[in-house]
Automatic annotation (TrEMBL), chains A, B, C, D, E, F:
Family matches, as Pfam families: Ni_insertion (PF01969)
Keyword annotations of the record: Nickel
InterPro entries: Ni_insertion
Organism (species): Cohnella candidum
Protein name per the record: DUF111 family protein
PANTHER family (alphabetical): NICKEL INSERTION PROTEIN-RELATED, PYRIDINIUM-3,5-BISTHIOCARBOXYLIC ACID MONONUCLEOTIDE NICKEL INSERTION PROTEIN
Length: 153, 153, 153, 153, 153, 153
């Protein structure tokens, strides 16, 4: 999947939030997976402290406005929240391109990002690096460094 | 207090935030209580890292717009912040209803939430469960599970 | 309750820990209260990240060795853990004394701590300060500062 | 895999720790997986703040003493630490048993824990619940609640 | 530098955010310094948990709208993010004034804040207190307390 | 300062801990600096939640046993704690060596660590990289990558 997208500003995003203090944390990765399957652009949860000193989690999801319904479906079904709040946000996305590099252990995809036509980000793909590290019995960090070095040369 | 409220979207909310790095954390629960007394819908604080590597707390309060003054009164009086920032948010609240269940140790209120007329949330009241657990010398988690089971049956 | 205890080293303490990822966080303050009722010297919980990226909580309790059974009773009954680990620790406690100061709003107890006969800690009692702040409608921080100032003068 | 183990105290454990502030956090789940593959009993990482206000992570691993070498091999190879510290800990493990329950959507394994011959823990297996939730299109939390209810009845 | 600014509401601020999971945390204080040099009003980072259970950091910057370009220049150059999101916020800033107090160890600047013409904040300058504590070999907390006491008297 | 130290196990270390909920977080970096000046090997603080839902900080210091007095002097003078607890730990330190690399912008020191005579850690010095990034107006991350690449070649 070699993709290329232009740098752009997307004005039609929405940030969705809920604070939850009564949910088994074991379920959180499942909720996150569901949100991404249904089209979330990003999703994080943040340890927070709530009313009466209760520890809890803030979910914060970023999605395009037309995905609000899908996000709500997941959050109301899979978490214990009684409400969601949202507000519009604007997103500035870099031009992204996927390329690949050859390492001594095989090919690794590298995602790059450009800001005003200047290359600023270079990210070897985690999945490729982890697979190679595992299969060749080399440290993951060495695979990253070699992928990065090959890109630079 | 058996209440019932319809599912609705409330467009007149405001998120109020401050980052604070010079306040005795012992005072935080007091501030939280005050905010809820003055009508906050929700209030959390989040451990953050600020300028010069200083640990601090982000307060994040959700209130209806017409409570902004009361929230500011509390925050400027009770915290050490020199500024507050705010932005509008929209809140989608589930239909809420309070019912009760009978357990072997007594009655427990249960709050439920419905999303598009489908029951999605069932939450035994903490105060009831904690009182029963304490008075009957049973684990709190067993009280929750029995309350939940009785609701389901 | 005006107490005075000498500076000493207590060699008979134990640190008890558990990592928990499948427990409703709403129950945590209840567990903490129980631990203190049964004689814990200190108890904290720490947000951690566990196996498979699951968020969880590490409980860490400090108690005298002869309270290990009581602590285990609470933790196995009230949390969801399947195991506890412990290790001995030594505690150096300052000489503690309780005194009181007069403020314009009434008397406030102040706890002090001395290290090698030098006064190093001065802590107005939260409960007194909070009660006065509430009853007199003054900011809690002003009550603390006045209590501290009266102590110093 | 239906297992049963007796309640016991294991005196031959070791807690291994490192504080790390210069490692790509993307690598952490990989490190965790490796540690478990090599026999770690438990492994968590904790967000901490280090020298000069740098955010970092504390790794904390629990393993039997005879696994110290394997743990060190992973940690020195896969993280960026220049040192590890360790100390002995004792672990009290509950009697564990695996049973299963029938729900309307299929069989779910349930792990139980007993403390002094009293059943205190009941934990439906995450993997079974997640698979069923996914395959039957039902909320994960409903699957948990039904598994738990079936166990209790 | 003795300054005085009136209490006011600034409607032209912007909150800029990015979630980052693949950046060496050692670089974060450097990024923060750069943001403040380029005019950020405030900047914090928050430990969060991201996709696939990866720990990460949310950067949250507050700046005036006309600094958006400078903030983007820093964030795209110095972090590893491929996108930034932003949304407008309004800031209510207290009237601020700088005064000074004399302590037994020398002069300390004190920043004050007034809300509706009532003095609510009193903050001894960290840099002055730290310098004095260091030069005179006294505990920093004693310097703060004396500065505060002198202000009150 | 080009140093070389052999891989070794140091059995004479001590972990010192305190949980603090009533201290101005602004003072924490000062405390940390003092601890390192007085010989701490490592020092971190961890956001925790304490009694009554109060947020606080756990300080955790690692020092050689013969520095216990100096550490206590700092902690009792500069924090608000009324007690410290400690326990022995053993530290396994890699062989460390300092070397240097030439980049297009100048010389950068690189610290390396070897485990059983195998090079496992390579860390460009933050101070050198930050100075160069600042002086040459290049992104800090580019300086790190080039230093690392030069080391590998």
């Amino acid at each position: 999947m070699f993709t290329h997208s232009q740098e752009h500003v997307d004005p039609d995003l929405i940030r969705i939030e809920a604070n939850i203090d009564d949910m088994n944390p074991e379920w959180i990765p499942y909720v996150m997976d569901k949100l991404f399957e249904k089209g979330a652009n990003d999703a994080v949860f943040i340890p927070v402290i709530m009313k009466k000193g209760r520890p809890g989690f803030m979910f914060q999801i970023l999605a395009s406005k037309d995905r609000l319904n899908e996000m709500e479906d997941v959050l109301f079904a899979e978490t214990t929240t009684l409400g969601l709040r949202y507000s519009p946000v604007i997103c500035h996305r870099l031009s992204r391109k996927q390329t690949k590099v050859e390492t001594r252990w095989g090919t690794i995809r590298v995602k790059t990002g450009s800001y005003r036509n200047r290359l600023v980000q270079v990210a070897p793909e985690y999945e490729d690096c982890a697979r190679i590290a595992r299969n060749h019995g080399v440290p993951l960090k060495d695979v990253y460094h070699e992928a990065r070095r090959e890109f630079d040369l």
